[in-house]
Design goal:
By secondary structure, this protein is of the alpha/beta class. It is built from eight helices and eight strands; from the N terminus they run βαβαβαβαβααβααββ.
Length: 205
């Protein structure tokens, strides 16, 4: 059974989401404030769901920073009442795997959780070699993107192709996350020769 940490200060919403996730077979630990959640940031959860704007002085951003100090691989989904590109970009920069805007359907969140759990835990992580890079600190999304490009060198991928391959066919977000993830990977790997195909997508040369 997969263990999920749900950090949401709206108690009714927290309880509702917990019910949906438990019906899906997950073991859910609820947190109603950032202070309690950040103290458990090193616990062995399979996935975190973090509300960005919490009622106390600790935000979802603070919590993910603390989580990433101990674990670079555990997937994180951000939720927020603010549908701003900046929030999504910051979330990606901090190592989140998904972002969902309130109000959202509990079924949609469960679907995204299922997609991430399946992608992260039901397949063996491969090892790949690219140029002189060794032991890079990559998030799950970054690794999956790099693996797709390295195993398909010189093949062109549209943004929709990348969304389907990395986030799954049921992803509800925009293709802006593709550009943000590419930028993040380029920042960590300056020698990564990803070519931008204007108006279409990307390919690794």
């Amino acid at each position: 059974m997969y263990n999920i940490a749900l950090v949401e200060d709206e108690k009714d919403l927290n309880d509702l989401i917990k019910t949906y996730l438990e019906k899906e077979g997950y073991n859910v630990t609820s947190y109603y404030n950032g202070d309690t959640a950040i103290k458990d940031s090193n616990k062995d959860y399979h996935l975190w769901i973090l509300d960005i704007m919490l009622g106390d002085d600790i935000s979802g951003y603070d919590i993910i920073k603390k989580i990433r100090e101990d674990n670079n691989d555990v997937p994180v989904i951000f939720t927020s009442a603010r549908d701003k590109d900046l929030d999504k970009i910051i979330g990606l920069e901090l190592g989140s795997d998904d972002y969902i805007t309130k109000p959202y359907s509990p079924k949609e969140l469960v679907l995204r959780v299922n997609n991430i759990i399946r992608r992260v835990y039901t397949k063996e992580r491969q090892k790949i070699t690219y140029k002189d890079y060794e032991d890079l600190n990559l998030t799950t999304l970054e690794f999956d993107l790099l693996y797709m490009f390295v195993t398909n060198k010189e093949k062109s991928f549209s943004r929709d192709d990348i969304l389907n391959n990395i986030w799954g066919e049921n992803y509800f977000g925009t293709d802006r996350v593709v550009d943000d993830l590419i930028r993040r990977l380029r920042k960590k790997m300056p020698l990564l020769d990803i070519n931008t195909i204007y108006g279409y997508g990307y390919r690794l040369l």
